Amino acid sequence: MKVSPTPTVYLQLRSRIRLPIDQTVKLGDVAFIICDPEWEKPLRSLALAHPKDRDGNRLLMDLIQIIPKIREMIPNVQIEPMGNHHTLVELVGPSVKPSWFWFPLVWLLLFFGSALTIMNFHADVNMLEVHIRIVEMVTGHRDENPYLFQIAYSLGIGFGMTVFFNHIFKKKWNEEPTPLEVEMYLYQENLDQFVVAEEYRKMKTFENSAEAENMNSRGKL
């Protein structure tokens, strides 16, 4: 097969990936690649980084690091980057089995915490008097303990929360994202931006310290 003298490689970096902590980061892991068929397999298996202890549980792969490695493999390559210019690699350790001790403890904490929050809100706005007044307006009789209305109201809160969050256990009513999923997505986006900024800062600090060591070594010579 005849190899093109100036092959073109199109790269689109993924925004975020998860890899085992002891696995070598390869180009095929962090990017979508479009190129000549003869270069596709070598590029996908191109090693970019070997995670070290100082990297922690996150590693940032930038185009500035990736392009020189591709040029080492294909000297005359023309690289066309698209989309993101960096990929955040989350290094994952061995999976930990869920603890049956913590699960009921956290469940009880969330249950009673939510119940107390709702009860405190109702106490602040005097919800009992509101229910009594509503029942009196509908029936014409004042009932100091409108249990039937309160039971229906309590069931309505649960049903309303289920419809609002579009989720019951593992089942969703439709394909639309729930408000909680949207908030978690926005939180993850902000977290990733912060981590990327921190990783760039660490890289800059490491480069500055390396340059300082080189200058000191030259001065001693």
Q: How would you describe this structure to a colleague?
A:
- With 221 residues, the protein is of the alpha/beta class.
- Helix content is 54%, strand content 17%.
- It has helices at 27-30, 37-44, 63-73, 102-124, 127-139, 147-165, 179-220; strands at 8-13, 16-20, 25-26, 31-34, 47-49, 58-62, 78-83, 86-92.
- The chain is elongated and about 90 Å long.
- It starts with 7 loop residues before the first strand and ends with a helix.
Key attributes of the depicted protein:
elongated, 3-stranded mixed sheet, 54% helix, 221 residues, alpha/beta, 7 helices, single chain
Molecular shape: elongated
**Proportion of β residues?**
15-25%
Q: What quaternary form is this?
A: single chain
Please mark out the parts with pLDDT under 50 across 5 or more consecutive residues, or reply none. none
Radius of gyration, in angstroms, nearest whole number? 29 Å
Note the total helix count: 7
Overall average pLDDT? 83
Q: Which helices and strands appear, and what pairs or packs with what?
A:
Elements: E1 8-13, E2 16-20, E3 25-26, H1 27-30, E4 31-34, H2 37-44, E5 47-49, E6 58-62, H3 63-73, E7 78-83, E8 86-92, H4 102-124, H5 127-139, H6 147-165, H7 179-220
